[in-house]
Hints:
GO terms for molecular function: hydrolase activity. By secondary structure, the protein is an alpha/beta fold. The protein has a single domain (12-130, 182-250), classed as 3-Layer(aba) Sandwich (Rossmann fold). It has eight helices and seven strands, in the order ββαβαβαβαααβαβα. It has a seven-stranded mixed β-sheet with strand order 1-3-2-4-5-6-7, with helices on both faces. The chain is globular and about 50 Å long.
Amino acid sequence: MSTPHVDENLWVRQFHPAPAAATRLVCFPHAGGSAPYFLPVSKALSPGVDVLAIQYPGRQDRRQEKCVDNIADLADAVTAELLPWTDRPLVLFGHSMGATLAFEVALRLERKDIVPLALFASGRRAPSRYRDERVHQRSDDEIIQELKALSGTSSEVLGNEEILRMAMPAIRGDYTAAETYRHTGGARLSAPIHVHYGTEDPRVSREEAEAWAEHTSGRFDIQSHPGGHFYLNDEGPRVIEAIARVCSAATT
């Protein structure tokens, strides 16, 4: 199988190219997150699955670019960047804000008759469930406190004031995108949806997680894990196993 020409691709990162893999997994980071967060996923699944990670503007090597603080605009941009990679079946995986974005990208792909094998939505309420959250309107110090409360950033980063201040535009932009998102209703996915969430996550209730079932006409299942919003830090291997099973089933 051929690999798209991806020299200097700003959006799509490929840490362990797997040219012989039959399926591709596309990973969408959380608010304030970046593509390298999924290095362990790529390492675990390669070479059986070709793992891609999306790098949003405004962070790391893209920090000089303006953040995209709107989910619809971000989904449009990511979908366009993914089209060259649709020569193999795709599985989409997103955590927190990334789950919402992955859902919107899946909708756009299906409108182009590209139906993903599955959507894995992690640590995020269903698109139809709304909360009046306004973290993006808080001061930098208050946003930092929010990050610490959710334990979504490594202790090294949280302890480095300079790094945090540099990352703040991206963090605030992502929170703006996540918190101002409104599901317009109507279209549902044909692709199956697999939901994973932490039982102690203050951002996702069981009901909000189960409501993802409303957003697909295909199969739906849900798996709870011990832990909070970033349950993945400890439960990652179990989620990776679930993704591997779906990818394997598609090739047998």
